[in-house]
Amino acid sequence: LRSKPRSMAAKTAKRRAVISWVLVVAWACFIFFMSAHTGSDLSSGDDLVSRIKLWLDGVQVVLFGEGIDAVSSIAHFCEYLVFGALICNAFRCHIPVRTALVAAVLVASLYGVTDEIHQIFVPGRFCDPADWAVDTVGAAIGSTLVWLKAHSKVSAGTAEEGSSTQRKQDA
User: Phi/psi zone of residue 83: left (φ > 0), alpha (ψ -120 to 50 degrees), beta?
Assistant: First the structure.
């Protein structure tokens, strides 16, 4: 009877790992898609992305004035924050979460390098080492958030076990 729950647990863990890696690949494709377009490509049109980009450009001008492109850096940061979190989550299906954090930052950072190289070949885009640095910081924070979440679950489980043991001792 015990082999059934273990096999169910193994199937669930495998399914979780596959879904986690599919999300990583999907997000990498999204980053590639975004890098293949210029800001003006994204702001010309009537779709949701164009409306958001135009709104962000307007907010940016109000906050920082003309000539400052904070939207690009914020976009890079957010893309890689999510990417780092997804990679860390996928790695933690196979390795300890602390190791997953480091591996995720390294993989996301290397992907950021390839992203910047890719932009050399996109008309209207260019390779910017500052973008790579922002990508890496975003990935590091995203991975750290996954680590903190996993760490808090472990701590909560340990605290719960401790309080349960204490109640038994008190009884």
Answer: alpha
